[in-house]
Amino acid sequence: MRSDLDLDLGFSVHIPSSRLPLVCCLVAFILTFFITRTIVRYIRSQAGSDAPRKWWQPRNISAGGGLHIHHVVIGVVLVMVSGITMVTIAVDGGVPEFTAASILFGVGAALVLDEFALILHLEDVYWAEDGRTSVDAVFVAVAVAGLLILGFNPLSFFDVADWQDDPSVTTRAIVVVAALATLALAVIVLLKGKVWTGLVGMFITPLLVIGAVRLSRPHAPWARWRYTSRPRKMHRALERERWLRRPVVQAKLWLQDAIAGMPKFPDDALVDEQLDREIHAAPAPAEREPAPQKAS
User: Does the keyword ATP-binding apply (predicted)?
Assistant: First the structure.
C-alpha cells in the first residue's frame, strides 16, 4: 500500500496513509454540517407555506403521534455504529475500513454537534441566542481535527520515542518534568479564561507560555483571585479585553449569523451589547465568615 496520497490538483498534496481516515472524517463532518444547516433553513423558510410538498422536498422527521425527531438522534446512532465498527476493526482492520468508518463518524458527529445547544440546554434553542453554542462546538471540532491533520499532536511534549529508546532514569525524569510543567501552564492558561489559547497550546506549546504570562481575561477565575484587590490591573484587563475582543466578536457574529441563515455585518450597537455581555470584572472571592464561638 502506498504511504501517502498524491492529488493532482495543480499543486502537490501529500496525505500520509495514517491520516487519510481523519481527513475523510473532517471532510464528511464539514459537508454534513453545511448540508444540514441548508436543509434546516429551507424547512424553516417553508414552515408557513400551505403549498403541497413534493416527495423530494426536505421536511421534518416525525414519528407516530406527531413526535418530532431531531437530527441529533440520527447523529447519536451513527456515532455509536461507527464507534463500535472502529473498535471492532482496531486490531485487524486496514486503512480502507477505518476510512469508511471515519466518514460515518464524521457525518454522525456533525449531526450531534449541530444540535449541541439542544443537549446542553435540554430545550430547542436552535434559532435562539443560546443556539450559537452549537456553532462554537463545531468550530472547536474543526480546529482540533485540522491541527491533527497538519501533524500536530496533543501533549506533543511527551515524547514516547525518547521514553522507549532511552530507558535511563534521567531521560524519563526529564520527560515527566516537561509533561508536568506543560500541563501546569495549560491549567494556568485555562484559569485565565483563554480557552482557545489553551486548546491550541496543547498542540503548540509556546502558545501556553505566552498565554500564561499575559494578562488574564477579567472575568476568569485567575482575575477573581489576583486582580480584584488590584483595581489598576483589573482596569487594564478590561480595556485590553474590549480592544482585543471587538474584531473577534464582529467576525464571530457575522459568521454565526451566516451559518444560522441570516448573514449580515453586525452593527456597532449589537457588537457593544455582546461585548457588555461577555466582558465584565470578576466578583471578589467571598470571604469566609468566622466560625461562631461556643459560649463557655
Answer: no
Give dist(CA 34, CA 39) in Å, integer: 9
pLDDT for 295 equals 52
Q: What is the rounded distance in angstroms from the CA atom of residue 109 to the CA atom of residue 97?
A: 18
98 vs 86: CA distance, rounded Å: 6
What's the chain's Rg over C-alpha atoms? Answer: 24
Question: Are 216 and 234 spatial neighbours (Cβ–Cβ below 8 Å)?
Answer: no
- Supply the DSSP symbol for 263: -
Q: Where are the alpha helices (DSSP H) in the chain?
A: 20-45, 71-88, 95-114, 116-121, 132-149, 160-165, 169-191, 195-201, 205-213, 221-226, 231-260, 268-278
Question: In which residue are the cell numbers 500500500 written?
Answer: 1
Residue pair 171/163 in contact by the 8 Å Cβ criterion: yes
Query: Do residues 133 and 116 lie in contact, with contact meaning Cβ atoms separated by under 8 Å?
Result: yes
All three cell numbers of 57, joined, read 422536498
Residue stretches of the chain with pLDDT short of 50:
1-3, 9, 11-12, 288-289, 296
| Residue 44 grid cell | 424553516
How many whole angstroms separate alpha carbon 284 and alpha carbon 195? 22
Give the angle subtended at the CA of 136 by the CAs of 32 and 261, to the nearest 5°: 60
